[in-house]
């Protein structure tokens, strides 16, 4: 699981993982399993956005920007990366 901020998805087993990490796990493992519990997962089915986690992430971004972290302010590198990931 990554430690960077990215859009979160909910697997059918109930575990949450970011979209890029889910893709990387599937590519690296060659098996359709959840990276947390290893339960068989069908990645052909769309993953469900985890709105609760996304709301926490959005609030964290706001706090970072308000605290003066320039990476999260307008045109900051981390904010730009985040906005690209959630498209």
Automatic annotation (TrEMBL):
Protein known as: RING-type domain-containing protein
Keyword Metal-binding among record annotations: yes
Domain of life: Eukaryota
Source species of the chain: Lentinula lateritia
InterPro entries attached to this UniProt entry: Znf_RING, Znf_RING/FYVE/PHD, Znf_RING_CS
GO molecular function: zinc ion binding
Gene3D superfamilies (alphabetical): Zinc/RING finger domain, C3HC4 (zinc finger) (3.30.40.10)
Ribosomal protein recorded as keyword: no
SUPFAM superfamilies, per database record: RING/U-box
Ranges of residues in domain RING-type: 1-38
Endpoints of the signal sequence: none
Pfam families associated with the record: zf-C3HC4_3
The entry's keywords: Metal-binding, Zinc, Zinc-finger
